[in-house]
Amino acid sequence: MAASPEDPIIKELQEFTTCDVSDALCKLKYRNGGFLSGLTMWSPQRQDGPTKIVGPAYTVKYVPLADPAPKHPTHYIDSVPAGAVIFISCPPRTPNAVYGGLMSTRAQFLGAVGSVIDGRFRDVQEQRDLNFPVFARDVGTAPPAELVKVVGVNVPVKLQTEDQDMEIRPGDYLIGDVNGVVVLPKELAKETLPLMKRGVEADGRMAEEIKKGMGFTEASRKFR
């Protein structure tokens, strides 16, 4: 999977929030508007600031050590494509962190735009000192080796929560900001973009009229 910063879809997605993406995906009946529950911003700030990441997913699959699947022969972090968003899938309820500061140091050097950890990560201050965007489920202190191993890189993975049945595939677009993280299936991207534009324009007109005193119901009926 090559992640080109010149990808016109990435350039267009930069204009929209995760909420805009979800609104458009809901119009296409894509489940939960692509929202990936439980993943929030930890770096460069904790749920604050204008940080936004947009890029194709580079996926990493961790499983318990007892899993019969062979361990991936090389370290995933050395193959991160420029422009990618790293997505780490970790077995649920794993107490150890599966991602740390050295991973972000290498990812940043290779040109990744951020990391999404479906599990725990560590070295919070180190991540912030790098000014590297990290979204995660929670934090931890211990490294992963005593409990889990990587068995797949650039393979489809499932969101590790009982709340949703969501799949993230290599090359799907991941968008993250202060609202959370959304996955935009690559085959829906071109269809979704014009819906986002129309939705943002409609909401802008609604906001203008609501500020002037128009009721929400009337504004919604008029512009949406």
From TrEMBL:
GO terms for biological process: methylation. One of its GO terms (molecular function) is methyltransferase activity. The keyword DNA damage does not apply. Pfam families: RraA-like (PF03737). Substrate binds at G100, G101, L102, M103, R122, D123. InterPro entries: RraA/RraA-like, RraA/RraA-like_sf. Keywords: Magnesium, Metal-binding, Methyltransferase, Transferase. SUPFAM superfamilies: RraA-like. It comes from the Eukaryota. Its cofactor is Mg(2+). This is Ribonuclease E inhibitor RraA/Dimethylmenaquinone methyltransferase.
